[in-house]
Amino acid sequence: MSNSFLGAMAVLEGARAAMRVGGVSSGERVGFIVDLRVEAEVIQAFFTAAKELGATPFLCMVERGSGYGPPDEFIEAIKTANVLYFSWEMANSIVIKQLRSEMGTRCVGFPHCRTAALLADDAVTFPLDVLSAIYPKTWDVLRTGKDVQIHITDPKGTDFHTILTKDDVDNKFAGDPRYTGQIVANKPGFVSHLPVGHGPNVISPSEPLNPASEGIVKLDAITLAPGVYRGWAGDSCYQQPVTCHIKAGRITAIEGGKEADAFRNVVERDLENICQLREIGLGHNPKVPTFRGERGYHGANHAGAVHWGFGGGHQKKRIHVDAIMFQATILADGKPFVERGRLKALDDPEIRRLASQHGDPDRVLAEAL
Question: Beta 191-193 vs 148-153: how paired, if at all?
Fold first, then answer.
């Protein structure tokens, strides 16, 4: 068999996995909202995979997606969809949230799978049953019935503390099904992403500012700068970690090189709001690489990667700066659930037994670099 045929089959397998993430079934209408950054092979594979299931796919395309939501001219068409796939983020836009609430529209974002190579990646086809089991194995450490002290460190000198009250934890588990392993969009109004593995969070953007958050955070990648810091020396694009001093949930100082300067310039536009720590999330998928040669933020879904978000208000605003830390240790009341960037659930005997149903568990659970 030719390499081109094998490559096409790998892309199709990725598309089939994407349909499973969206819970697509026979008789459903599946809408794809894309722009020209999405390769034709990806769209063709999506259509083939949807048709194999007896679903009816349709396409809405613009030259370049922008803003936080679908173009107005697509709205009437997407109202007919049972499931929506989109190549730029819009699941929590006003229009899509209304469709999710009133019509039960399910959503899958794929901004990190616009190319055939990315759709065919092992991160997309990682077994969903294993990934689903990793979530509660990770997050049940918070279910203590009392307040939980969170401590985050890393080899570069990060030393951060926050407190999650019992009510905080209860609200998280009640409001986000991912904590209990419900990670696919197979129920009315549910949202997922490709590759699966991003979130849930220690702190979420929808929550009030947590005044117990304070310490020093040294960031390996930010959305404002290309490249990634590897822990010993940066690549040609990212020379120093960005150091943030945080007190009462707000940035009080930013240190570092040109990456820190870019971050500081954004924060200083609105010190009251943009400097707030709005998000601390966690990746769960071991097959997501930490860096794809473009922006380190692509590694946010990597198992054990800690995602930081800075902005303002209870909801994501127009300015929301995301950042990543790759070698963190996270303790909950002194118990580690991430250790030097390694998600502890990957070593759990039950997870390994489940992974063994898909082959050698060492291979199945091996982390991409």
Answer: unpaired
